[in-house]
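Internal ticket - ligand job 254, zinc ion:
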Amino acid sequence: MLDLHVHLLGHLDRKVTKAAVREFLNAAVEKGISYIGFADHDLYWEHFNFSLVRQVGEEYPELQVRIGLEVDYREDREEEIAAMLQACPFDYVIGSVHQIGDWLFDYPEEEKNHHKRDADKLYKEYFAIVEKAAKSGLFDIIGHFDLIKLFGVRPQTDVRLLAAPALEAIKEAGLVVEVNTNGRYKPVQEFYPEYKLLELIKELGIPVTLGSDAHHPGAVGRDISEACLTLQSLGVKEINFFSGRKSIQLPLAF
Ligand code: ZN
Ligand code: FE
Ligand code: FE
Ligand code: ZN
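stdout (structure tokens):
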């Protein structure tokens, strides 16, 4: 099993120490995860310590440890992001949309603002930014593809229609979509992306990977086995791992 979306730093809840890395890796071993990737928020860039993570990773021959990054995508950040990615040899980069214009929409206190908006418009605006992220050429993986649903606001229009242009762009760009289990712990209480979008992703032949979006050791690998079963039920046969920004297909055997 595999988990490529782990936040070692959380939201600066801890420092990168050997003890902290071991706590996460021990949790992975306990959960039966053999492929793990840390992908902290790019916002905390100056707090990273890749050599320490790689060094502690060596203590775990049973684990494949990788270092990625979760980038906050905004159209006006493209140059800044490209420079950041140039500066560091990441194994993979997750592009995530957490912001519409200057509205950081995924904070808990924003829930009421979601309910005030026109849901179809909200989804269209969100997926248009995801589409730009996919076309930017900056990323390997698109994070929590339908994050905009997190407070349970649903569009009137079929979400598959609203998401189609973004999915087409993802397919064109050869990007991977993650099944992110963390949505289950948000008001919407389901994985990202939802099942009918996953069906469409499978139909389109878009490759997938898995992530818990853990911000603490206890959440590493959370619900990943269930996500594997969901993918298997859809007939997905392969899951993507990364090394030096190249994807590696692993059999989804479980
Ligand atoms: Zn976070
Ligand atoms: Fe995120
Ligand atoms: Fe995350
Ligand atoms: Zn995330």
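Auto-summary: The helical segments are 18-31, 50-57, 78-86, 111-116, 119-135, 159-173, 195-204, 224-233. Residues 70, 96, 98, 143-144 surround fe (iii) ion (ligand 2) (CB under 6 Å).
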